[in-house]
Amino acid sequence: xxxxxxxxxxxxxxxxxxxxxxxxxxxxxxxxxxxxxxxxxxxxxxxxxxxxxxxxxxxxxxxxxxxxxxxxxxxxxxxxxxxxxxxxxxxxxxxxxxxxxxxxxxxxxxxxxxxxxxxxxxxxxxxxxxxxxxxxxxxxxxxxxxxxxxxxxxxxxxxxxxxxxxxxxxxxxxxxxxxxxxxxxxxxxxxxxxxxxxxxxxxxxxxxxxxxxx
Length: 214
Prior knowledge:
Number of domains: 2
CATH topology of the largest domain: Rossmann fold
Low-confidence stretches: 1-6
Strand content: 15-25%
Shape: elongated
CATH class of the largest domain: Alpha Beta
Largest sheet: 6 strands, mixed
Number of strands: 8
Mean pLDDT: 85
CATH architecture of the largest domain: 3-Layer(aba) Sandwich
Order of helices and strands: HHHEEHHEHEEEEHE
Structural class: alpha/beta
Strand order of the largest sheet: 5-6-4-3-7-8
Number of helices: 7
CATH superfamily of the largest domain: NAD(P)-binding Rossmann-like Domain
Radius of gyration: 19 Å
Oligomer: single chain
């Protein structure tokens, strides 16, 4: 990256690096500047600058720990920004199809191993179409697509359900909504066990609320 850390105060943060920082902080509150720099492939000074800017923007909270260490926490604002950046990444990434196909295949293989045969997709999108191509090598049956508010009867040959409550006897749900995957997870978690809610890893869905939500 060509920009020096000192220039960050005068410009917007790079969305991809910011997303990487927020994901790293959420998964490990004891992340260090050095480990973050290595994980994201950026200079140590750049990692430090991004952490400071994210803290200044209210996306993360920093607390000092013993031995001159720091702990980083994702704030509710950071949680929301992570979801927004994830949606942006999913719709602009050149590697989207390849990653989507591979990770959907992994999801359906997991369903197969767990004997989850009846699966529904949640969200009409390119990802839903890719998902239908990825279940072919398994015994999983995709029984339909949940698309709240939709007037369509079918999508990529599957029955469309405008309401999740219309479904009966399903084993798992795969989130395929690219615009708001985290909101979809939060909604589904009110209806079914969270271990039955599946999604490609690149969606970076959080299965717990941020620690500072209250």
